[in-house]
Amino acid sequence: MANVKEKVFAEIENIEKVLVELEKVKDKSHKELVILVGIGAYLQNIYNGMENILRQLLLSNNISISETPSWHKELLDLSVEQHIITLETADRIGRYLFFRHFFTHSYGFLIEESKLKPLMDSISNVYSEFKKEIINYLKSIEKV
C-alpha cells in the first residue's frame, strides 16, 4: 500500500506542477500557435497523470488493463466500477481522453483556441474533484 500511495502522490505532485505552468499562460490574450500547442501538451500531461494514478490503484487491486485500442476508456470504466472515482468524474475526465487522442494523432497546427479554451478553463476544477476522490479512496482502503 505504501508504495502505491507514494506513486500516487508523486503523480499528484507532477500534475500540480503542470497546473502551475498552465496558469501562467492560459489567460494571455493573444496565444500564438506555439503557446496553444504548449497548452495542449500541458492538458495531455495532466490527463496522463490522472490515468497513471488510476492505473496504479487498479494494479494495487490486482486488476490489470490489457493494452487494447480501447484501454484508456476501459481504465475509466473500471475505476468507476471499483469506486475509485465517480461516474461524473470519469465523464469529465473523458473529455480530456478525447482531446489526448486528438493531440496525439494530429498536427499541432490543427489546434483551435476556441476548442481548447473550455478544456483549459475547466481542468483545475476537474483535477480538484479527481484528487478529492482519489484521496478519499486512499483513506477508505487504509481502513480495511
Q: Helix proportion of residues, in percent?
A: over 70%
Outline, from the CA principal axes? Answer: globular
Round the mean pLDDT to the nearest integer and report it: 93
Which topology does CATH recognise? Four Helix Bundle (Hemerythrin (Met), subunit A)
Number of helices: 5
Number of strands: 0
Q: Please compute the radius of gyration using only Cα atoms.
A: 16 Å
CATH superfamily: bsu32300-like
CATH architecture: Up-down Bundle
Which secondary-structure class do the elements indicate? mainly alpha
How far the N terminus sits from the C terminus, by CA atoms, comes to 11 Å
Low-confidence runs of at least 5 consecutive residues: none
> How many structural domains does the protein architecture include?
1
Major sheet attributes: none
N-to-C SSE series? HHHHH
CATH class, anyone? Mainly Alpha
How does this structure look, described?
The chain is mainly alpha-helical and 144 residues long. The chain has one domain (2-25, 42-142): bsu32300-like (Four Helix Bundle (Hemerythrin (Met), subunit A)), CATH 1.20.120. The protein is 78% helix and 0% strand. It has helices spanning 2-26, 33-60, 71-81, 87-105, 113-142. Helix 1 (2-26) runs antiparallel to helix 2, helix 2 (33-60) packs across helix 4 and helix 4 (87-105) packs across helix 5 (113-142). The longest helix is centred in the last third of the chain and has 30 residues, at 113-142. It starts with a helix and ends with a helix. The mean pLDDT is 93.
